[in-house]
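This week, look over our next protein:
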Amino acid sequence: MLGRVATELLCVQVYVYSIKNPDEIMTGEIPVVKESGPYTFVKTVVNKVLSHSNGLVKFKRYVTYNFSESESCQTCILGNRIWIPNMIYQKFVEAASTTGMRAAATTLLSQTAFLEVEVGEFLFEGYKDPFLDKVCDIPFMNFVCDSILDLPDRIGLFYEANNTNDGVYEIHDGVENPAELGKIASWNGKKTVDQSWWSSENARTIRGTEGMLFPPFLKKSDRIYVFISQLCRSVWLEFQKEIEYEGVPAYRFVLPPEVFDPTAPENEGFCNPTDKKFFDSQNETDDCFPKGLLEISKCQRSQPPIMISLPNFNFASDEVRQSVKGLNSTDPDRDIILVDIEPRLGAVLRAHRRSQVNIEMWKGRDLVFP
């Protein structure tokens, strides 16, 4: 089995939002966005087996994304230009709000809070920040750029995620115990994610499968766990209903609202308290972000200001949904993560993993400009 390769082709559709009122946002108005898409990519997944012994299969999953213009909307080309928040600007806002690094506020005068970039650059190609070289040449700022902020050469939501893998998985083969089939024994040689990512052992523990395979004889009462490396955590799915997929009876499991609820006992440790204040309700949840949001900056290079949610802030509070204008109305049947499984075999018949990537915009704390 060593060296065996299994290939899958999947469809990924991306909708992007362009900011329509960047100047007004800087004076305190609510962001207004315009949606475009879908930009469709063919995702090729190659699982390369590295070893198989003692009931464990070790493999790497290589992923490649190729843009399909024919499957995208009529006006969707990667050269389309959109206005986005400047994540580098936000990193300097964070630095300037930190005691001992107030001088970083000087750099904000040489940057803009929003940038116009191409869709392809924003997604996979990465864009070159037009101000970064100039800013990092300022005395003392070169140290901040290289040592503290660890800024990449290019910036993109999925930059460096194409033509690569997300680590080494080791899963149970289920021969001795079918109930363990597909469950992760380790990821990158460990049973937990990095200690700096989440604040409790419970949150850091890797549970369940990697989402492509489940144990046989699933029951409706089962809570199934899936480790999603892009979210830096395991999530759970619960039975919703019986369905048929191309004539095959199946169970539909969905991500419940509690997964992104910081007050749920199961989520102890997934809140990384912050002094960034975006919502009034943060004062009621020990500085955690409100229900419906997952802050994942600590598990990304350079700790970009990124929050994950379901599309259109599904399951989030009105306070969150009303913080941006221009999103679609929430649809509880559409804006979810689901997997349809043939319960006797544990075979995945259909899976939809829908999520929304949100960029934080913080005004900083006690900023003083020279």
User: Anything to note?
Assistant: The first strand starts at residue 5 and ends at 19.
